[in-house]
Each structure stands twice: as structure tokens, then as C-alpha cells.
Amino acid sequence: MGLAMTSSQARLMVVEDDKEMRDLLVQHLSLDGHDVEAVSDSASAISALSRHEPDLLLLDIVLGNEDGRDLLLELRRMSDVPVVFLTGRGHEIDKIAGLKMGADDYIVKPFSPGELSARIESLLRRTRRPAKPSGIADFGALRIDFVAREVEVDGKVVDLTPKEYETLAFLAASPRRAYSREQLLVNVWSSSAEWQGEATVTEHIRRLRRKIESDPDHPQWITTVRGVGYRFEPSGPR
């Protein structure tokens, strides 16, 4: 039994202590065109992650005598890689606990290869980000140093929080492209409206405008696209 080939190929890591299940997952995911690395315990997973970060990690909640939830907590100190829990526990309270701990999705065993493939594709679409820009971008009075993560307006450094900077950098990397609040949650916060309110984006945009706009009530760098969200105007004040 194999999976249909998909268009979204990625580097995946499987953390599963059961060899038969681990080999089956590798086989199915490889047939999907993904590059798959499989390990059986927490130490091996952390070692592999330190060498190179996958696009997505599949994690069994029970790893022999280990608890996959403990590994998830450790992973979240190192990385924001998307994590899908694989488990035989189907109770809602277990799902909620796993998601609150930082998992991005939860699949209950036994599951079909088709469901697994669809869940992975959906999560990859939500979490894959455009390549981060590098170097320095000058937009008239606004200057963004993507390497130093520094922003200047009229030659003066602006004190931005990490999320304010990341919001501005993300929008500025695609001038005049409109992004919804949901898209900003996915690309800047690695989240979604299911888990985090879109008001988070609205508030960060408001604070960012107060710091870079000469008139925050009539913004000219970060403008509102009615019915959509926000976009960055490279021409700035006119």
C-alpha cells in the first residue's frame, strides 16, 4: 500500500521506537517523494536536529520508556520545527494537552497513509516560509538591515521588538503584496487562527506603525488592504 505522489517534497524526520512502524512510515513518506530520516529515541532525535533541521517532524508520543512529550518540550527550546504527534491515545484531553505543549497536529493510530499524507501536506503549506532576505534594503527614509536585524528611519535606529521586526521584514520582503492576518500568523508566528487570535497581528501592526510612521493614523509604509490585511508600500511617504 503506497501513497500518491505529491508536489510538496520536504525533509522529514520520524521519531518512532517501534521498528516495524518506523520502517513503514519511512517507506510511505519516501514514496511521497520526501527525504526521510528516522530515529528511535530522544537522544538520537536531538543529535539529528542539531545537525540539520527538517521541514517537519513526526513524533510518537510513547518512545519505549520515554515520553515523547518530554522530547517535544526539549525540541521547542531548540527549534520551531512543525511537529506532528503520532499516538494511540485518541481522547480529546490528550489531544488538547499535546497541542498546548507545542505540537502542530495530532494523528491517532491506526491512521491511513492517505490521511497521513494529507495532514503533512496541509501542515507544510501552512508553515513553509519564503526565503529570508539578506543584505540591506533602502526604501527612502526607511532602511532595513536584514543581517543585523536593524531598522532605521531618517537615519535613526528604531527600537523594535523581535516580532515587530519580523513582521516588518516579512512584509518588506514582498513589497506591495497583500497578506491576511492569518498568513502573517503562519509566517511570522508559526501559528494559525485556530490557536492564536488574529488580534495579535493587529496589535503588532499598530505598535509597529507608531514606531516607523510619521503619522500612524495615516500610514504610508504599512497600509491596510480593506477586506484582506496589510501590505508594505516601498515608496513610503509621498
What descriptors fit this protein?
238 residues; alpha/beta; Rossmann fold; Arc Repressor Mutant, subunit A; 2 domains; 5-stranded parallel sheet; 4-stranded antiparallel sheet; 8 helices; 14 strands; elongated; disordered N terminus
Mean pLDDT metric = 84
What CATH architecture of the largest domain do you see? 3-Layer(aba) Sandwich
Whole-number total of structural domains: 2
Rg result: 21 Å
Share in β-strands: 15-25%
Please give the count of helices: 8
The major sheet is characterized as: 5 strands, parallel
Ranges where pLDDT stays below 50 over 5 or more residues in a row are 1-7
The best one-word shape is elongated
Could you explain the architecture of this structure?
The chain contains 8 helices and 14 strands. With 238 residues, the chain is of the alpha/beta class. The protein folds into 2 domains: 11-127, Response regulator (Rossmann fold); 136-232, Arc Repressor Mutant, subunit A (Orthogonal Bundle). The chain has a 5-stranded parallel beta sheet with strand order 2-1-3-6-7, sandwiched between helices. Strands 8-9-10-11 form a 4-stranded antiparallel beta sheet, with no helix packed on it. A 3-stranded antiparallel beta sheet has the order 12-14-13. α6 crosses α7 and α6 crosses α8.
